[in-house]
Amino acid sequence: MVSPRRLVRDPIVLLVAATVAVSVFFLIWPEVDIAVSRLFYRPGAGFVLASDPLFIALRRSNTIAMLTVVAAVLASLAVKISRPDRPSLIPPRASLFLVSTLILGPGILVNAILKQYWGRPRPVMVDLFGGSAPYVDVWQITDYCARNCSFVAGEASSAVWLTGLALVVPRRWRLATALVTGIYALLASLNRIVFGGHFLSDVMLAWCLTLLVMAVVHRLVYGEPPSPLSDARLDAALAAVGRALGRGRGGER
Fold first, then answer.
1. pLDDT digits (tens, 9 = 90+) for 55-64
2. Rounded to two decimals, what is the model's pTM?
3. Contact of 69 with 166, CB cutoff 8 Å
């Protein structure tokens, strides 16, 4: 039986509690959402910082950072398969963790489900900020937005996903990696509020949900992994794939 003290320190439990707490907070005080977005809105001009080159560059860097990590993982897998007798450049469990959390968190949960079907209008679409739709509370499903809507923030989700690097790099680099990726995730996420693309609640819930997915997957992969998910077994499996492909190419010749 898990002790209460251990339970309250469990990252998964804490992130579930944080998700509930953030949701309840914005359901009770939605005016906080509106007040934060209003800081960056100028009547008659809109969200003027959305055209600032610095903020535009920051937004683009989010995609670049995400693709860089994905490219590094794919390159490591390609090298391992092409040279199966050599160890993986990136530990296989790290590759599994990064790819699976990106797919499950920012990919499926945030973009494919919540943003696609919840229909929450973005700040730029809301009548308080020059649009025609009403402000909609968190978790309320509406048809004011047809696709790629405000709830929750996709780019904030992919930005906070980058903090997962701190969980897989060598121990001596973890604190520095956590600080750099954490500060970057904060700036890139708040940038979406500056643009009028998302409310503060969209950003905070994107963080909570993405980190929750990461915590669950990390528990499965690193906490008490079954033997097939050990680095040695995964490395051997990749090597077997590489050798099989090599024999196939040899047979074709």
1. 999 999 999 9
2. 0.93
3. no
